[in-house]
Specification:
alpha+beta; D-amino Acid Aminotransferase, Chain A, domain 1; D-amino Acid Aminotransferase, Chain A, domain 2; 2 domains; 8 helices; globular; binds 3-[O-phosphonopyridoxyl]--amino-benzoic acid
Length: about 290
Amino acid sequence: MIIYIDGKYYPEEEAKISVFDHGLLYGDGVFEGIRAYEGRVFKLEEHLRRLEDSAKAILLKIPLDRDEMRAAVLETCKRNKMKSGYLRLVVTRGKGYLGLSPDRCKKPTVIIIASDLELYPEKYYREGLRVVTVPTWRNSPAALDPSIKSLNYLNNILAKIEGQQAGAQEVILLNPQGLVAECSGDNIFFIRDQVLVTPKLSSGALNGITRNTVLEIAREAGWKTREDDVRRYDLFTAEEMFLTGTGAEVIPVVEVDGRVIGTGKPGKHTTDLIRRYHKLVTTTGTKIPA
Ligand code: PXG
């Protein structure tokens, strides 16, 4: 595995950063998770833009512009002979000192990893996930805006652990108002009365690239879509439900907090959306140079 760090390419064993990097010391940085399918990077521009937005929001200046970052990503794919896989872009505040003030971090650290990722075993795509709501709330936008894809994932990780302790595969996080925000690493959708609904971004969800893709696909397929306030009750009484994320793609949910969703099997519209999503990811995207 060949890893990009600050303009150079290293074998995995030599790919190292300082213990004084504020990404490690304070979670001070931003990241993106991107997928490649059959020689193309899916939604690369959207991911690069979100990375820029996250960096802007934390006053971090990425030392590469869009063209340079795109070129570095594609070159990393090329050097790894990547066809299908997972890309992790990380930009940290950089090497500094003990003390959280970022002003002594002279240069942000940029890392690009090309690897693979399996978030859920295959059987859950066929049978659907069981999810639970956890006590940990999604971060309040007044504390750390969930739209920022920062290296601070403790909120999500604690929620994930609570879900694992309850034997669930994914978890629902509520916002401080008690409305459904999102999962630990996925956005939430449900279908009721011919309308596809997902929580509004202002409820505390990441502006998911897969979320936007699925909204687009659904509209093209003639679906009515709505971004709304969503309560747990809306999920319990949904006809179908699924989650979206770069890693998970589109994955059905068949149980929420002990309530069976629909028939208890992945719904037919969900299955149709999964099919359409797969078609899109394998036929579009930025070509990896040979
Ligand atoms: N919410 C959160 C909190 C996320 O981290 C999503 C929603 C879905 O967004 P996208 O843009 O991917 O549709 C994410 C993304 C991992 C992993 O390592 C997590 C994500 C993506 C890829 C890998 O667990 N989360």
